[in-house]
Amino acid sequence: MVFKIYVLDEWRPLQYVLITLILGAFAISFLKTGLGGILLYPLLVLGAKGINFNLVIKDFFRISLVALSIVMALAMLGGITNLVYHPIDRATRYSLGITYPTDLAAHSLLLLLSYYYLRYRRIRVVELIAGLLIGILVYKLTDARLDFVATILAIGLIAASQWMVKKSAFG
């Protein structure tokens, strides 16, 4: 990925400096925390220059939906471990084959957002309501409050933007 960013992609000299500073900052964070995603995500974003974003989102949605469905089904059927957390001061939290309930909620939120992105010009009210119901279900299973709030905010923003587009001369 680094080879593509620095050799194959064309940038202006100042952009090379900025990219190096950004990647350097993320590399330091990676070395301090040991979390691979910290360095992986900026590399993926910078390496995506010249790639059709719609195709990336479409492939992400398809692959993630199938993978998450298989993992959840296997967890419910007992094929893989379904970690269940019983915190004292909160509701029981289910992970359905994912490492932690919050990760399951985040995967669900990203799937929902990618679906809405792909359908943006054609979203119907029933799809927004279905997203809200999915968000409620995921919240009940995972007790992941921030992901639930993000789901509600996303649905509200999408509904508002759809309404504004329909009411404007640009719709």
The level of helicity is: over 70%
Order of helices and strands: HHHHEEHHH
- Structural category is mainly alpha
Number of helices: 7
Unreliable runs: none
Please state roughly what percent of the residues sit in beta strands, choosing from under 5%, 5-15%, 15-25%, 25-35%, 35-45% or over 45%. Answer: under 5%
Mean pLDDT: 93
Which outline best applies?
globular
Strand order of the largest sheet: 1-2
Distance between the termini: 39 Å
Q: How would you characterize the largest beta sheet? A: 2 strands, antiparallel
Number of strands: 2
| Radius of gyration, CA atoms, in whole angstroms | 20 Å
Write the layout of secondary structure elements.
Blueprint: H1 2-8, H2 13-33, H3 36-47, H4 53-77, E1 84-85, E2 93-94, H5 101-118, H6 125-142, H7 145-167
Antiparallel strand pairs: 1-2
Describe this structure in words.
By secondary structure, this protein is an all-alpha fold. It is 73% helix and 2% strand. The chain contains seven helices and two strands; from the N terminus they run ααααββααα. It has a two-stranded antiparallel ribbon with strand order 1-2. A hairpin with a 7-residue loop joins strand 1 and strand 2. The longest helix is centred in the middle third of the chain and has 25 residues, at 53-77. It is globular and about 50 Å long.
